[in-house]
Specification:
CATH class: Alpha Beta
Number of domains: 1
Shape: globular
CATH topology: Uracil-DNA Glycosylase, subunit E
Strand order of the largest sheet: 4-1-5-7-6
Strand content: 5-15%
CATH superfamily: Uracil-DNA glycosylase-like domain
Helix content: 25-40%
CATH architecture: 3-Layer(aba) Sandwich
């Protein structure tokens, strides 16, 4: 049953995404094909935000970053640094557990070509606001990519110019938490060398 921190299964706030979801349900009726809820405990001190569910990743499996290339590096890193336990197997029933970490996407439904538009990001922002408000022990928000970073900045109603996205940067936020930036762990970024495993882990080395 969807939590109050997530859109309903048939959310129609974004007509383009709703139409895309309907087409995907017809083509792949066994997939999740619905808004993807966050994963991890509300007692977490670390909150990780990505862009949107991957078409064959979370849109298929129903768990953030599960089943696509980006999840391979993210889950391996979470397990290495003690933010998750178990063995990641690209399925939501692989038994992976989250330790002091919660993960989400700033847009909950898969967008065409993995590119949500501004109105879609804005429509999902109330869920992001509610997520952050529901984390009483939150210390660090890790934004994976510029879009996630700017969504967090907008959530706090801050000026983008005062909080530039830079890999490895740390930005103190008004509520006492720290916004930390990393390039997204996407296949494109890893294949082009924009992000390496070492660069990604270097960000985790600074998390408190």
């Amino acid at each position: 049953m969807p939590s109050p921190l997530a859109p309903t299964r048939d959310c129609d706030k974004c007509p383009r995404l709703a139409d895309f979801r309907s087409a995907n349900r017809a083509a792949q009726p066994d997939w999740h094909n619905a808004p993807v809820e966050s994963a991890g405990p509300l007692s977490a001190r670390l909150f990780i935000a990505g862009l949107a569910p991957g078409m064959r990743g979370a849109n298929r499996t129903g768990r953030p970053f599960t089943g696509d290339f980006a999840g391979d590096l993210l889950y391996a890193t979470l397990i290495k640094y003690g933010f998750a336990t178990g063995v990641y197997a690209r399925t939501p029933d692989d038994g992976v557990g989250f330790e002091d970490c919660r993960i989400t996407n700033v847009v909950r439904c898969v967008p065409p070509q993995n590119k949500p538009v501004g109105a879609e990001q804005k429509a999902c922002r109330p869920y992001l606001v509610d997520e952050i408000d529901a984390l009483p022990k939150l210390k660090t928000i890790l934004a994976l990519g510029r879009v996630a970073h700017e969504a967090i900045v907008a959530t706090f109603e801050l000026k983008k110019s005062a909080y530039p996205f830079i890999h490895g940067a740390k930005h103190p936020l008004p509520n006492g938490t720290m916004l930390t930036d990393s390039y997204h762990c996407s296949r494109y970024n890893l294949n082009t060398g924009r992000l390496t495993t070492e660069m990604f882990e270097s960000v985790f080395n600074t998390l408190s």
